[in-house]
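Example 9 (inverse folding). The structure is encoded as follows.
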């Protein structure tokens, strides 16, 4: 066997084994029951959930459950295979029409996961002799899409428009240039500077792709994302989003011009070679979109709850970086401190999880607290009290 492979196995066995022995391993914890949109049972104990991506509180909504059950009754639990050859259902087309309408685009296409969606988009759009310019804090799936494409990868300092312009100037004039950013950055909770990005992309003849995984349902008056947030409808060339966060199903989608989606349908390898989304997940996603449109007050609630949580955490003395959204990092410093903070919080009945190196830089380990439209003010206050107690006990605040 390869010595490097053995070394990797031993590294992770030692790292995981050490944290487990110290009672500080909190990854992949089995959730025994989802008791409500804000409460779960873990290891026999009821906890307040502050690690959920269900930003609009739609997970477990009876309307979504009914749609999924009806789809199983009509179509079964799966499809006959990959969509291009065997697996497309009318349900898929209906969801894609709804997504195109919701994003104000001509067409949309769904994929088996958000990760696969980003791989599909970048690898289908660019290749050798092309350049992809990414924010340094872009999601790992975007960077992996760049690697799959074979294009040159250039990274600019986080949300630094001057550095982005430097990268654009250095690109060969004949190269296709694709700028790729997250709308909301998943570890820090801040927002990409869309107006400046659009201005630079137009000035340097570059395409702009934006990953809306954590902005759908969170940004804008109706939750349509970063374009609505800035009042710049239609400026993004390639809109990517997921169906597993504010929309509590699974999968991802790309939205854009009809021609662009036709290209993805026939040239995106993760679409061509992956099985179709199962009928219940498609139906649940479509039902979630319908609820989002009918109940925009959910968007207003998650925005208000997020603002309240951020303001109170800052007042307590926590470093939450430049968070502007429902993702609120509580910086702890060392990985060990983050693990201990999680233990303190879970022992006090709040379910949060750590983010440690290499997902974030060493010394920047954190709890990533997320708030939803379903949280009541009393529940947020309860969590704040727990965060404060744990933070003081460990010297974080």
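The amino acid assigned to each position is listed next.
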């Amino acid at each position: 066997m390869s010595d490097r492979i053995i070394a990797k196995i031993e590294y992770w066995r030692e790292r995981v084994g050490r944290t487990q022995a110290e009672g500080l391993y909190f990854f992949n914890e089995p959730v025994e029951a989802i008791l409500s949109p804000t409460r779960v049972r873990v290891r026999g104990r009821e906890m307040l959930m502050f690690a959920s991506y269900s930003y609009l509180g739609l997970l477990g909504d009876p309307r979504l459950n009914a749609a999924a059950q009806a789809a199983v009754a009509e179509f079964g639990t799966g499809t006959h295979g990959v969509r291009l050859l065997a697996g497309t259902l009318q349900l898929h087309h209906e969801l894609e029409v709804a997504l195109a309408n919701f994003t104000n685009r001509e067409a949309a296409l769904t994929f088996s996961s958000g990760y696969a969606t980003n791989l599909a988009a970048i690898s289908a759009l660019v290749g050798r002799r092309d350049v992809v310019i990414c924010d340094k804090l872009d999601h790992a799936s975007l960077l992996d899409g760049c690697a799959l494409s074979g294009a040159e990868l250039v990274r600019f300092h986080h949300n630094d428009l001057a550095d982005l312009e430097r990268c654009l100037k250095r690109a060969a004039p004949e190269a296709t240039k694709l700028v790729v950013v997250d709308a909301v950055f998943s570890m820090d909770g801040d927002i990409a500077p869309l107006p400046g990005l659009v201005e630079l992309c137009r000035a340097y003849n570059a395409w702009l792709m934006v990953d809306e995984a954590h902005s759908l349902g969170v940004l804008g008056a109706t939750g349509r994302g970063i374009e609505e947030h800035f009042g710049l409808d239609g400026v993004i060339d390639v809109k990517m989003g997921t169906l597993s966060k504010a929309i509590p199903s699974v999968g991802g989608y790309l939205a854009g011009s009809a021609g662009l989606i036709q290209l993805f349908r026939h040239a995106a390898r993760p679409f061509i070679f992956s099985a179709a989304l199962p009928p219940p997940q498609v139906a649940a996603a479509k039902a979630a979109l319908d609820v989002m449109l009918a109940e925009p007050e959910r968007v207003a609630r998650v925005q208000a709850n997020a603002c309240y949580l951020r303001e109170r955490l800052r007042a307590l003395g926590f470093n939450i970086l430049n968070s502007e959204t429902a993702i609120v990092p509580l910086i702890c410093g060392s990985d060990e401190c983050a693990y201990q903070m999680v233990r303190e919080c879970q022992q006090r009945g709040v379910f949060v999880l750590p983010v440690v190196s290499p997902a974030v830089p060493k010394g920047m380990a954190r709890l990533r607290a997320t708030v939803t439209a379903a949280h009541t003010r009393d529940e947020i206050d309860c969590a704040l009290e727990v965060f404060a107690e744990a933070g003081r006990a460990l010297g974080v605040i």
